[in-house]
Predict the 3D structure of the following.
Amino acid sequence: MTTTPTQPTAPTPTPRAPQPLPAEENAPINYLNETRGIWSWMTTLDHKRIGVMYLVGVIVSFFLGGVMAILLRTELFSAGPGVAKLIGDALGHDKWQDTYNQMFTLHGALMVFLFIIPGIPAAFGNFVLPIMLGAKDVAFPRLNLFSFYLWCGGAVFFIAAIALGGLDTGWTFYTPYSTDPASSTFGGVIPAVFGAFLLGFSSILTGVNFIASIHMLRPKVMGWFKMPLMLWALYSTAIIQILATPVLGITLLLLIAERAGDIGVFDPSKGGDPILYQHFFWFYSHPAVYIMILPAMGVVSEVISAMSRKHIFGYSFIAMSSLAIALLGFLVWGHHMFTSGQSDTLNAIFSFITFFIAVPSAIKVFNWLATMYKGAILLKSPMFYAMSFIWVFSIGGLTGLPLAAISTDIHLHDTYFVVAHFHYVMVGGTVFAFLAALHYWWPKMFGKHYDEKPSLVAWFFIFMGFNVTFFVQFIMGAHGMPRRYADWSVEAWKASQIGKGLDTSFIESKVQLFEVCHKISTIGSYGMLIGFLILSYVLVRSLMAGKPASRNPWGANTLEWHCSSPPPHENFATQPQPNDPYNYSGWTYEPTLEGYKACEPKEPEH
Amino acid sequence: MSDTAPHTEDHHDEPHVVSFGLLAAVFAVLLVLTALTVGAWMVDLGPLNIAIAVGIAAVKASVVALYFMHLRWDNPFNGAVLCFSLVFVSLFIVFALVDTSQYQPSRTETGPTPFEQESGEALKNKTAE
Amino acid sequence: MSQADADHQHHDEHVAHHFESAGQQVSSGKLGMWVFLATEILMFGGLFVLYAVYRHNNPETFEYGHLLLETKWGAINTLVLIASSFTMAWGVRTAQLNKRKATSVLLTLTLLGGLGFMCIKYIEYSGKFSHGTGPGKFFDVVAYEKYYNKHQADHAHDHDAKGEAHDEPAEPAPVLHGTTRAAAIAPAVNFHSDIADPAAGPAGLVKLDPPKPKGFHIPWVHDKPTPAQVVQSRNFVDIYFAMTGLHGIHVLVGMGLIGWILSRNMRGHFSSKNYMAVDLVGLYWHLVDLIWIFLFPLLYLIHT
């Protein structure tokens, strides 16, 4: 990057016009505008552009999945048919309950496959990984672009699935329902399953790229235990992506072959074994949840340390715990199958090992808290989201324990308790960390600040809305409210198999509780919606008229903060000298920059 | 600063070239082992048959991996990647077998599955014509 | 800036801008390819799980099903793939030694090997489909019975000459028993040892007599399962098609890659300084061979 010889002449300062910053802080020519035109973006090999394209894609997917969530929560606000019937009638569905089933299926599938699994690694990992390594790009830039196009292909197939009639199998596609076209009659099953297959390959190739990059492009002075924890997180995630996702691939292919071609591997009427399907599915899908959470934890490690202005506590523990979670995650998939008819031996093994997974996660939580202790906390948006993560993820994690114990899981399986548990870790965990990453790296990626105050208002609505939505779900789940039920009314209970022959008063008192919980939950979901709308406004406004950001607004020390905001195409003008990424003494606050400027580091490296 | 940023796991720039003799020897070994596998199949050794078949296959596979695929002279991490993947496949197989080996007999009615029923009827009708 | 410029000047045209040296690029390429191969192993691994579970729990489906396969084709395919692996590895060597013509020849031979493999697969598959033993909805017992009867008629004299007892069911029984789940739903029958025991099993069961080889038997003998036995081999057929089908797709992809490398080689892209693509495609092709090395005994050399 060439330094511009003269500073741009400052315009007459008005209250609204942002003050221009020196070019090495806020580069006027950067990766965003160095080449122009849609073709230059579609054929880019620049990991930063690819990251931004992913970011746009996953955010759109999040909103689509969110629309489904709002629809189904609106339906569940009142007893009996509601918005599901309106939509179902418009689409020509026979039963409004089928429409409801489509809503939760699409909510799950869109969120899991299109948003949360690619989410942080693809959007932020792609952007920061090479820069944190001091490299010019990932190991295989063309493969990276190909991964993005695979993601697009997956998205296209999901849209096609919706257009071709949707699907109501649940995002888990359990057999024999999903393999029997006479049962799951909606035409979207095969396109959706194939879309998920493409998304799986996108994920796999991203994993290949990240592993090769971290092994090969790391400078010699940056040993394994000197690299930022975000890279440990991405590396551990990549291991899971490599080992687990191919099993999903073969599972989905077999599903398509069974549905379209009648081969008999998972469908009992064709001589197959439905429990085997569940083994195949969860062998991937359990490690997948660690794909979702590990990058989130990486983000939290970075944000907590930088915004406590304090060296991360227990670096090697956090690094090793990421690997431990990745590996242990492969040994626990059967805890999704305790009530499926799985053998007692396996039930015992999976339950036992599941308890251990809590340990590395807890190690991280304690290390983050110890990092914050006596730190100079910078109370800005990324920190709010990171702190929320710790609180909410801990609750989510703790509620995993009654699910790990078989005796309690038998009662809680397939109830709202499970729904609340995984939303606490996936939304409270990954989405909050995604938002933390978004706010943390936003000035770096786009060279602009967002308005802090409305951003905090958005946080408040999202945080409160989230807790209101999901906390009551623990309660109603523990009282027996099953998940994936379109209707919790007394009539529905009485009409169902479970309701037959039961003492009516028991059902009625339960339903009163369920009604209250469902209504509160729906109100909470609208709170989240408001929060996300405010957030969208804040971010769009930032892109259009945000204050220019300096290169290091937070004073962090990982290498991405050493280059300008936004970075130039080649990332670095001169090869950076990596040092301890958590030593903040080399930066002091400079008010004119509204950020930090480099100075002599005071303390020796840890 | 001449050595800008020497990279970890960088490899010497002269690559190792496998000798033709070694390649031919490996090929010969593979042919022999294939013949051995087929020959072992012709003998009735009970449960040993599958063990021998898979064992010989494992030897063939190792030889291909080490020599044809160059693992013998490569960065050992590449070999570790291969081994790791095999460990996880084995994990999956073992757990699935443990589970399915403990299936209990069905307590509902015995009798043919729908497919068997259909096929039986098809054959019966066919021969009845 | 000058530092980066200096780097660029020393760079080979073959070394991408984000790599420091050719050696780093090659090492990265190899690592990347091995990680990708690990994913392929996991994907096929799922099919091996399927195989293991069904063979363990429903040995009766594997008992007769493999008789539908002709071992000679499997063996020839194994030799073809091993030979093509050899020519591929040799081709990588000649590419490293700058022997362009030899590399082209060897890559062509490798490609022909793949083509030969697919031709044999075509022969096998088309036979299966036409005999009524295709996968899933292409499995037609009536069609198979026609084929079987014809086959028995053709080989009647062979069987008599060899003196092998080969019981045919007197007529198709009204109730067929013995497909998957058989072991589970008929606890009186121990399929692991009593399969040929006429005294075992509840009444109404078809007596199942697998053509058991006595001592030595010649591998190319075309003992065919009876229609009754074929019915319970349906799972085997599905698994066979799933495993060899996925493998076949990988062979086709490999052939495409080799064709691409061949055309690049003929245009002079490769040299002793730049042969990485040949090496990496070679690794992929060897993996295809590796998988077949396991598929062959597991599918074709099942010993009853």
Q: What stands out?
A: Residues 18-72 of chain B form one domain. Residues 29 and 86 of chain B are 23 Å apart (CA to CA). Residues 76-101 of chain B form the longest helix (26 residues).
